[in-house]
Every structure is written in C-alpha cells, then in structure tokens.
Amino acid sequence: MHRILITGKNGQVGHELQRSLAPLGELVATDRQELDLSQSGERIEQALDRRHPDIIVNPAAYTAVDKAESDEETANAVNADAVGAIARWAARRGALLVHYSTDYVFNGDGERPWREDDATGPQSAYGRSKLAGEEAIRLAAPRHLILRTSWVFGAHGANFLKTMLKLGQERDALKVVDDQIGAPAPAALIADITAELIREYLAKPAGFAFGTYHLAPHGETSWHGYARYLLQRAASSGLPLRINPADIQGIPSSDYPLPAKRPANSRLCCDKLEKTFNISLPEWKSGVDQVLAELLNGAPDNKGIPRE
C-alpha cells in the first residue's frame, strides 16, 4: 500500500484531501505541529524521513496575502524554502510531489485566461513566494505536479463565500469589488481532481505526464457577481437575509485599497489539464451551489451558516 503524506490537514484543501485520497493508500495527514514548514529545510527533511511517504501532497502554504507584504521573509520560508526542501527529499526518494500554486504568479493584466506557459510576473510578495516555490520544485523534483488554482472556497475553513453569507444576514448594504475577474474553485473539486491524477499516476507511473497544470472551474465572474449569485441562491433556499442581493453595490478595487495588489485577471485556461487527463471540469456556479447546500444542511464538520 502506498503511503500518502498530506500537509496542512486543517486547511480548506487539506481537509478535503483526507476524504478524496483515503481510498488510494495509507494516509499520513499532518498539521503545523506535526510538520512545520516555517522550520529549516533540515528539520523538514528529518520529518519526512520519519514518515517516508511515497507521495507528498502539499496544500500547506503561507496565504496571508496582505501580511506577506510586511513579512515576506516568512512567506518565502514557507512557500519557497520549505517547498524546495520537500522537492529535494522527494527527488532522492523517488516520491511524487503534488503541490498547489496560484494565479498570483502572473501579473494580472489583460482579459485572456492564463496558460501554463505564459510569462509570469507576480505583483505581490505572496505571488513572488509562490512562484519561487514552483521554481524550486522544477529545479529539484522531476516527478511533480504543480496545480495552479484561484479563489478557493469550501464548507470547511474561512473564505469569501462564508463571509458573504454572514454579512448578508447582518447588513442591509454591501459593497464588493467588481473589476477582478476569475472563477471560484471549490476545495472539494481540487481534492477530487488531485485524487484522479494520483490514481492515474499509480496505474501508469512510467508514462505519467508530470508538470504544471491549471485547475479551476469553467466560466468567469467578478467578486461582485460571485456575491450576488451566492446570496440570490441563499435567499431562494430560505436563508433569511437583511440585504436584497440585487442591491449589492459593485465598486472598483481602487475604492477598497489593500496592502497587496490583487490580480485584475485571475482567469486560468485549463485546456491542458482536461485534454491530457481526459477530465471535464464543471461550471463555477455548480460548486457554489454544492457548498451552499452543504452549509445550509449543517455539514458534520462545521456549524453550518450562522443565523440571526
């Protein structure tokens, strides 16, 4: 039986990976106490030696995008240095490394969805640290999958979707940015696609198509469009709201300044993933509907949606 190590088990993707990867082998799910990626590379490699996985799946990351602007050293330690240590260990042991990256590695310009071979140009400390992690993997570990995604959400953990549901019950007015475009990616979808890719790797390791792939649902929206769709669906499902979803105001990013620059264009072209592995990705609205239903029904691992 293959041993699969998951980092960041308490995060949105890490939580879902424990479900999706359970049928594929012996899982070793770790949190920050068990595998701290802010430690030295030597300590990280020692921790891996103790667990000796055949496959490492690394959703753990420094994701405090704004805080990274004033703490780039820590962001680099977790998102780049630690990833390099994991990659070197995986290369020595012949292990597969699955790692998650982000649309923030691009400069966010234009309107065309980003392809895997497009020039990178991160505009934030977070984006620079994630790109450095990608480069460390490509340098050290030939047997790797880098999955770039965007706007991750789920029933577990904190995210935009859950924040909007809470605010929709508390406020009669909301302003949401409408000039950043992308596709909300469900953590469950990311985990399920990861399981499908690992399943194919285990079946045909010799001919497996390693490399970098984009992973996001079809379609596109703004944060404003996302919020309106979500709260319209919540209202039609019976959730009592103070705000009328049609009254949510769209605003430019300049009206909501933050320390880190957000990409205006977070669109990801996922043709390579779909064609290489014969995968059909869903539309973004279906994932929002699924997580909303899970929250409204009170998912076993969370308290559902706070109600007034």
Features:
single chain, about 300 residues, alpha/beta, Rossmann fold, six-stranded parallel β-sheet, two-stranded parallel ribbon, 9 helices, 12 strands
How would you describe what is shown here?
The chain is of the alpha/beta class and 308 residues long. It has a domain at 3-159 and 183-219 and 266-282: Rossmann fold. The chain is built from nine helices and twelve strands. A six-stranded parallel beta sheet has the order 2-1-3-4-5-10, with helices on both faces. A two-stranded parallel sheet has the order 6-9. β1, α1 and β2 (26-29) form a beta-alpha-beta unit. α1 (12-20) crosses α6 (187-203) and α3 (72-93) runs parallel beside α4 (125-140). The protein is globular. It starts with a strand and ends in a 12-residue tail after the last helix.
Describe the secondary structure blueprint for this structure.
Elements: E1 3-6, H1 12-20, E2 26-29, H2 41-51, E3 55-58, H3 72-93, E4 96-102, H4 125-140, E5 144-149, E6 152-153, H5 160-170, E7 175-177, E8 181-182, E9 185-186, H6 187-203, E10 211-214, E11 221-222, H7 223-236, E12 249-251, H8 271-277, H9 284-296
Parallel strand pairs: 1-2, 1-3, 3-4, 4-5, 5-10, 6-9, 7-12
Antiparallel strand pairs: 8-11
Helix pairs in contact: 1-6, 2-3, 3-4, 5-7, 7-9
- Any idea what the CATH architecture of one domain is? 3-Layer(aba) Sandwich
Looking at the structure, the CATH topology of one domain is Rossmann fold
Number of helices: 9
- Low-confidence sequence ranges: none
Fraction of residues in helix: 25-40%
Q: Secondary-structure element order, as H and E? A: EHEHEHEHEEHEEEHEEHEHH
Spatial extent as radius of gyration? 19 Å
N→C terminal distance: 48 Å
Structural class by SSE content: alpha/beta
Biggest pleated-sheet summary: 6 strands, parallel
How much strand? Answer: 5-15%
Task: Identify the CATH class of one domain.
Answer: Alpha Beta
Strand order of the largest sheet: 2-1-3-4-5-10
